[in-house]
Amino acid sequence: MKSISDKICNQMNRQFDFGELSPDGRLNDLLTSVVSDVKIYAEEQIKRINQLVQIGIALSSEKDTSKILEMIVDEARSLCNADAGTLYIIDKEHKRLRFKIVQNNSMDIRIGGASGSEMTFPDIPLYKEDEQPNHSNVSTYVALTGETITIPDVYEADGFDFTGPRNFDQATGYRSKSMFVIALKNHENDIIGVLQLLNAQDSVTDEIIPFSAKLVVLVTSLASQAAVTLTNNELVHDLNELFYAFIKSIAVFVDKKSIYTGEHIRRVVDLTLLIASHINTADEGSFKNICFDEAQMNELNMAAWMHDIGKVTTPEYVLDKSSRLETISDRIELIETRYQLIAQLMQNNFLHHQNELLRNGPDTSVESEHLGAEFKHEIAILQDEFTFIKACNHNRTRIKTDDIRLLEKIAKKTYFVNNEPKPYLTPDELKNLSVPAGNLTREERHIIKNHVTMTHKILEQLPFPKSLSHVAEYAGSHHERLDGSGYPKGLSGEELPLQSRILAIADIFEALTAQNRPYRDPMKLSRALQVLDILKEKGQIDSNIVEIFTKNKVFKEYAEKELKPEQIDISLN
Q1: Which among 517, 511, 486 is positioned nearest to 500, based on CA atoms?
Q2: Are 470 and 456 in contact (CB under 8 A)?
Q3: What is the DSSP letter of 208?
Q4: What is the pLDDT of residue 386?
Q5: For 98, what's the count of Cα atoms within 13 Å in the CB-facing half-sphere?
Q6: Do strands 208-209 and 191-201 pair parallel, antiparallel, or not at all (unpaired)?
Q7: What's 90's domain CATH number?
Q8: 343 shares a domain with 287
């Protein structure tokens, strides 16, 4: 306002002799002119303030860093009507200024950001080879000192090396003239970047003019908003990275908890996202109108990483059970020791009877021979029984009804220690050996299944942001089936979102083709695909997902990366 008041005084001094006022209306004209000037000035200031407000709103609502960087230069140039602008970000680790945005309207140059071409300019070192600050370059000087620099004409400026702009001008015919360089400082007053504007233009004549003091104030305000936005965005990004790293570390721990399921979670994540990406690109069929956005893909990714988190509560002996008798150790060794004891008892009994025969006289050879044959027969039966038990313990095929009957017959047999009868097989050993398929008893299967319930309980306690609000739901339902036969809640049909269905199929296919499961050999690719078709026909898994999985050969990339060559028994072309 000082310039307007000066204008009033100057005009009054020129037009009036203080002591007499002409009644001819000239004073009214002067006042009208001044009021008009004040109005125009006020409107311009309001426009600038509104522009800054809108810029602040736009900056704070944008999440894409590349767009934020581009917006900073666009809006700063607009405020100053500058022809060109450059934005640098400080790389503190390597002590350099990195070009992020380069714009020049006259030269039709737009590099970096969301809409520009790829940045190819080399970094500018903040320090010289002798570790002295690089103050010769105006941008590095501002980055190191935080000072704001305004230069009316770079060709006449002292103190800085403008060889670069001059070489650019000579090569292109451009004329670099007025320059304004300001540091971007965050809320802790740390310098995080440098904004450089070039060639302010008169809004009427397009003449190159110096950057005025009022424009410096406006751009300083913009730079402050921009720095805060960039810092907040970086903090959010870093927190997300930390969160994902923490989640992945937990997932790795869960995988490493079992020597037989290592890498399971990572493979399920890869396959889940692979299926989802094919759904996103489907241009026909049931998924042509479905496309997961970035937030939904992140949410699905998180759910896949977390789908087995409940296994942190599952005992290792259940997770790692590689034989029917295994708990903390494989109890087949205990049974083997027991059978050795029984054999020794049989031998002691045989020798005892032999001694009795010898004491009864020399004519006992027939009885002795009969006794020896009986002993050998008993030992042979004992050896056959143990061989059979050992086979049942490690058998990867189903235990048949006849096998169970024989196990029950063995379990009823007893031997004596200190005149106390002991069973050949304990009730728990019999129960474990009689498991028809796999290694787990009904109780152990319940323990295993409980990991899904625990997954949901653990995840629902976490304060996920809105964008990840369905993680617990998706992760906690990856064992549900469309026909209601799954667990833990027996959900069916529309109760299961598409994301849960994708995760379920990824989990099934990984388990079928896994190479390190103790209870069975890894399936060949053709058989695994056949199992998916069977489950689809039963109505247990989503037929549309299975269709895109097979028709689009989603399994191809996974098979080439994860399966052994001998598992791939169909063409992947």
Answers
A1: 486
A2: no
A3: E
A4: 95
A5: 13
A6: antiparallel
A7: 3.30.450.40
A8: no
Question: What would the pLDDT profile of 404-457 be if each residue is shown by its tens digit?
Answer: 999 999 999 999 998 899 999 999 999 999 999 888 889 988 998 999 999 999
The residues pairing with 38 across neighbouring beta strands, listed in sequence order, are none
Where does 92-242 show beta strands of DSSP type E? Answer: 96-104, 109-111, 124-125, 149-151, 179-185, 191-201, 208-209
* Residue 228 burial (C-beta neighbours within 10 Å; 0-12, 13-18, 19+): middle
> Does residue 24 lie in a domain region?
no
Angle subtended at Cα 57 by Cα 203 and Cα 86, rounded to the nearest 5 degrees: 50
Instruction: Tell me the two tokens of residue 57.
Output: 């709103």
Within this chain, do residues 430 and 479 fall inside the same structural domain, yes or no?
Answer: no
Rounded Cα gap, residues 229 and 58, in angstroms? 10
**pLDDT interval class at 73 (50, 70, 90):** confident
Q: What's the structural domain count of the chain?
A: 4
- Structure-block tokens of residue 343: 């054999």
Contact at 8 Å (CB) between 198 and 164? no
Peptide bond into 152 cis (omega under 30): no
Is pTM beyond 0.70? Reply is no
Domain of 210? 65-236
Task: List the structure tokens of 50.
Answer: 């509104």
Burial class (CB in 10 A: 0-12, 13-18, 19+), 447: middle
How many CB atoms sit inside 10 A of residue 390's CB? 16
Cβ–Cβ < 8 Å for 266, 251: yes
Give the pair of three-digit tokens for residue 353. 């009877």
354 and 299 inside one domain: no
204/75 same-domain check: yes
430 with 526, same domain? no
Contacts of 56 (CB under 8 A, 6+ apart): 225
Is 289 a member of any domain?
Answer: yes
Does a structural domain hold residue 248?
Answer: no
